[in-house]
Amino acid sequence: MDYVLKKTVSSLFTLFVVIVLVFLAFRIIPGNPANIILGVEATPAQVEELEQKLGLDQTLFEQFIHWFKGVLVLDFGESLRFSEPVLSLIHERMGVTFSLAFMAIVITIFVSIPLGIIAANYKGKFLDVLISIGTQIGLAIPSFWMGIILIMIFGLMLHLISVGGYVPWSENPLRAFKALLFPATAIAIPQIAILVRYLRTTMIEQLNFDYVRTAKSKGLKDSTILLKHVLKNALIPVITIAGLNFGAILAGSLVIEQVYALPGFGRMLITAIGDRDFPLVQGMVVMIAIIAITVNLLVDISYRYLDPKIKLK
Amino acid sequence: MSEILSIHHVTVHLEQNRRKLTVLSDISITVQKGEIFGIVGESGCGKSVLSNSILDLQPKKMRVSSGDILFEGQSMLKKSKHQLQKMRGKEISMIFQNPMSSLNPSLTVGYQIVEIIRAHQNISKKEAKGIAIDVMKKVGLPRAEQLFYDYPHQLSGGMQQRVMIAIAIACQPKFLIADEPTTALDVTIQAQILHLLKEIRREQNTTILLISHDLGVMGDMCDRIAVMYAGEIVEIGTTAQIFENPSHPYTKGLMESIPTPDKKGNPLYSIPGNVPSLQERMGGCPFASRCHLAIDMCFTSKPQLKKVAKAHDVSCFFSEMEEVSFEYAKSFS
């Protein structure tokens, strides 16, 4: 079977499993949504009426089928708390979270690849040691704390960013960019630290391979050898780590949104869980899962470009 | 004939834990233009280090600490990094032992050939591709146009080595270093590859430095042979001299261990022991500890290369005493 098709099918299967698990998780945790919505003083009759309205009186299987049909067309139902369609709530907040995650990824790639190459190329020398110390610090500091420190330094002391000044991209792209740059950096720093260390190790490993000597014997420039021959082989395992860490980046943006008071997924998800607003939580989790699985699918497909051996499998 | 490469008293040291270990000691070789010069010896005797140091490709920890390497009369050791880079692949090319690991697994065969052409000639990708396809055909790669887009792992070992050779000769170098080019291949492919190397020499008058542990291979290929042992040259001469009148006990041992039809039915001879590691090397003759003839003197003082015939040098105290036959000595062991 074609590689891309095979990977897509397995991704769809993963997504289905996530959808089932999300549904079940909410039926297993204690707390009746109808009770929570109506408060402690509600009469059993009122509770029963609302349960009926929410479809909670149906069997689990019927509820699932009903919900699953909706998911197929991205209709996650209506939020219990906001009485609005879940999809439009997600749509409002999605922009912030995903642009945050996307910016964090871009920063991670553009910083970690050059740093990893430099560290490997100057192995054991001053620059390598400096980068190594930097990555140690980056790994040790949690991103929310890093976020607070960045606000302190760049916001309160240097006045380079306006704290809490987010406006949607469509209104003022420059302001949106400025508001997201530092939180995205805070998310990116630990990721950069991981990838730099990983890339450094794989590059050094690759540099000892025979094909590097062949490349030298051909009279190629050092930079060509490093960027064209070594990097491509060294990136294969690094891409895997980067793909797996995408989840961490999304989780990181949920936390960082709190620190920077950004109107993204994070806060809505946390309050929705507290409110037992299960259509909203389910919708958001499925949405995050779709994105994460898509990213991993793209990673798998990018292997094909990087590692020609995969084409045969 | 004129000299193309001459290695003058080259000594190579390895720095390890602040200790200087001698990898090659006082090696001198002169290669004439257009000849196939063989270097033979067991694994670990320094053949590859020697051939790699010509283009400064030896491991970083090893350094040529004395002597000089002259290519067309110019010192290779005094060349700048940039000058060396320009010579690699253009003037002097290399073919390595294991084609699978010596080719980059994630670049196409065609790219890897085009790359060397474009590194030394200022031409377009399209022109370079044309040259690459021609070279691929020359080294006997079938369906060159399709193979151009294949990756190394899609090729057999013999074809991979042909690709390596195509890369090496793409810029028509004057000098080709083939470091165990057939060791990783099976016997029939081995013969084809050796035949190809001979053809290249004939057609382009390329000088070839052939390195192998297999004296049998050398006999068919080389004009002259140097026998190396533990970082030293112990015997050097024309192929006929080495085969008909091997004079160093080590060369004799190597000759004895070539399987030939007349030895059928008898166990094949093997030289007892191993090549001493860098740490184990001591003064005196490097081969003394494995030599049947060794006397006290062999362990304490070092024999020098001495002429036993025209163009035939041997470093052994016994080489002058012709009456000491190898067979005779073996009877005592």
Could you say which overall geometry of chain B the principal axes of the C-alpha atoms support? Answer: globular
Element-level helix/strand string of chain B:
EEEHEEHEHHHHHEHEHEEHHHEEH
What CATH architecture of the largest domain in chain A would you give? Orthogonal Bundle
Q: How many separate helices of chain A?
A: 13
Instruction: Identify the biggest protein-protein contact and residues per side.
Output: A-B, 23 and 30 residues
Note poorly predicted spans of chain B.
Answer: none
How would you summarize the topology of this molecule?
The complex is a heterodimer of chains A (313) and B (333).
Chain A lengths: L2 H26 L4 H6 L5 H11 L5 H13 L13 H36 L4 H15 L2 H15 L15 H35 L2 H8 L4 H23 L1 H14 L5 H10 L3 H29 L7
Helix pairs in contact in A: 1-13, 5-6, 5-8, 5-11, 5-13, 6-8, 7-8, 7-11, 8-10, 8-11, 9-10, 10-13, 12-13
Chain B lengths: L2 E14 L2 E14 L3 E5 L6 H8 L7 E10 L2 E2 L5 H7 L4 E4 L3 H4 L6 H12 L4 H14 L5 H4 L9 H13 L5 E5 L7 H18 L2 E6 L2 H7 L2 E6 L2 E7 H6 L4 H8 L39 H5 L5 E4 L2 E3 L11 H5 L3
What does this protein structure show overall?
The complex is a heterodimer of chains A (313) and B (333). The relative contact order of chain A is 0.14. Chain A folds into 2 domains: 3-72, no CATH class; 94-312, MetI-like fold (Orthogonal Bundle). The radius of gyration of chain A is 24 Å and the shape is globular. Helices cover 77% and strands 0% of the residues of chain A. In chain A, helix 5 packs parallel to helix 13 and helix 8 (173-207) runs antiparallel to helix 11 (246-259). Chain A has helices at 3-28, 33-38, 44-54, 60-72, 86-121, 126-140, 143-157, 173-207, 210-217, 222-244, 246-259, 265-274, 278-306. The mean pLDDT of chain A is 85. Chain A has 313 residues and is mostly helical. Chain A contains 13 helices and no strands. With 333 residues, chain B is α/β, with parallel strands linked by helices. Chain B has a domain at 245-333. Chain B has 13 helices and 12 strands. In chain B, the strands form 2 sheets. In chain B, strands 6-7-8-3-9-10-12-11 form an 8-stranded mixed beta sheet, with helices on both faces. The mean pLDDT of chain B is 89. At the A-B interface, helix 9 and helix 10 of A face helix 2 and helix 4 of B.
